[in-house]
Design brief:
- The protein has 344 residues and is an alpha/beta fold.
- It folds into two domains: 172 residues, DHBP synthase; 93 residues, Rossmann fold, CATH 3.40.50.
- The chain contains eleven helices and 15 strands.
- The longest helix has 17 residues.
- The two termini are 27 Å apart.
- The structure holds threonylcarbamoyladenylate and magnesium ion.
- Threonylcarbamoyladenylate (TXA) binds next to strand 5 and strand 6.
- Required for the formation of a threonylcarbamoyl group on adenosine at position 37 (t(6)A37) in tRNAs that read codons beginning with adenine.
- It catalyses: L-threonine + hydrogencarbonate + ATP = L-threonylcarbamoyladenylate + diphosphate + H2O.
- One of its GO terms (molecular function) is L-threonylcarbamoyladenylate synthase.
- Belongs to the SUA5 family.
Length: 344
């Protein structure tokens, strides 16, 4: 089985980082914490190492990987920033890197085709997680790292969740505790425009549409999922899927239990609205934001709660809708995808 190395004491951190770097240098994969979700890392410039990511995740090779840089100064080693968007891209990087923002940019030839699935663009970000940063800086190379789950499954936000997904398939997991944001990075592409550049959000995440609006005109991809698939190939209709069928309610009052079926409820704040939260209906109810009833707290717990409810073996997980602003946009996007049954 796969060992987990702790990082919560300086000598342990030192040892864990050393082990991870040693494995990455020898062309192996290692699961690392980031501020969004745990990633499955490999040397991005070594195609044999990158191939092991696809193998461990059972990820189809048409789905490209994000490249993480040790420092934002290294952007032009893997990507070309087009002249006509340089100004806005520079401002975005100044403001949001290191952090949970991924940019799609034309790739440099050194990036293997396997990383970008043959696309002319590369997805790039710089992580702000202290463990990830130490590993990346010691390795001093770009790191390819998708979320450390099996393809199509729920993203891991703890070392134990990585273990549940990939135990025995990878040589090491570094435990950096719970992820700060709990949802994957926001993925954008930037195009020139007058008077303002245009940002297209391909995957909503912790850097919200509201945040990005300060820098450019912003649009969300709302096209059919097939169209979208060509833009962010991993953003398939069925994604983030628990094994238990999931139903996203359009409004809380839309739920009527059927006799003999067992349900679990994913509730945003656990509030009683119009008699909606009738405990008798639920085998279990888990509240996303029990502490402060706010979206960032819900985001941190989102994948954890989904994973826990999936373990119950109920007939259906019922999810309450959330407001589509801030991090609510990303959670609603994920709930919609999770409610599409995989065709496998
Ligand atoms: O927060 C995150 O972004 C995490 C952490 C580990 O960094 N990573 C992550 O990677 O979520 P992954 O592979 O699970 O999701 C990356 C998404 C996929 O949907 C992929 O299709 C898309 O980014 N993507 C990657 N490169 C692309 C490219 N060149 N063009 C379009 N989409 C791309
Ligand atoms: Mg993923």
């Amino acid at each position: 089985s796969t060992p987990i190395l702790p990082t919560d004491q300086p000598p342990l951190m030192h040892h864990a980082v050393e082990e991870a770097v040693r494995l990455l240098q020898s062309g192996e994969v290692v699961a690392l914490p980031t501020e969004t979700v745990y990633g499955l890392a490999a040397d991005a410039l070594n195609p044999q190492a990158v191939a092991k990511i696809f193998e461990a995740k059972e990820r189809p090779t048409f789905d490209p990987l994000i490249v993480h840089l040790p420092d934002k100064k290294l952007l032009d080693t893997v990507a070309e920033v087009p002249e006509d968007v340089k100004k806005v891209v520079t401002r975005l990087i100044e403001r949001f890197w290191p952090g949970p923002l991924t940019l799609l940019l034309p790739k440099k030839p050194c990036v293997p085709d396997l990383v970008t699935a043959g696309l002319p663009t590369v997805a790039v970000r710089v992580s702000n997680n202290p463990v990830f940063k130490r590993v990346a800086q010691a390795l001093n190379k770009p790191i390819a790292a998708p979320s450390a789950n099996r393809f199509g499954s729920i993203s891991p936000t703890s070392a134990n969740a990585v273990l549940a997904e990939l135990d025995g398939r990878i040589p090491l997991i570094l435990d950096g505790g719970a992820c700060l944001h709990g949802l994957e990075s926001t993925i954008i592409k930037v195009e020139p425009g007058t008077p303002k550049a245009l940002i297209t959000v391909l995957r909503p995440g912790p850097i919200t549409i509201e945040d990005l609006k300060l820098y450019a005109k912003v649009q969300r991809v709302t096209k059919t999922l097939l169209d979208e698939a060509s833009e962010a190939p991993g953003q398939l209709a069925s994604h983030y899927a628990p094994r238990t069928p999931l139903r996203l309610l359009s409004k809380p009052s839309d739920f009527t239990p059927e006799e003999g079926r067992r349900y679990a409820l994913m509730s945003y704040r656990g509030e009683e609205k119009d008699g909606y939260v009738d405990l008798a209906d639920w085998e279990q109810m888990m509240i996303l934001s029990p502490g402060n009833g706010k979206l960032p707290e819900a985001a941190v717990r989102f994948f954890y709660v989904l994973r826990e409810l999936d373990k119950l073996g109920v007939d259906e997980i019922i999810a309450e809708p959330m407001l589509e602003h801030g991090m609510g946009a990303a959670m609603m996007d994920k709930l919609r995808r999770a409610s599409v049954r995989p065709s496998r």
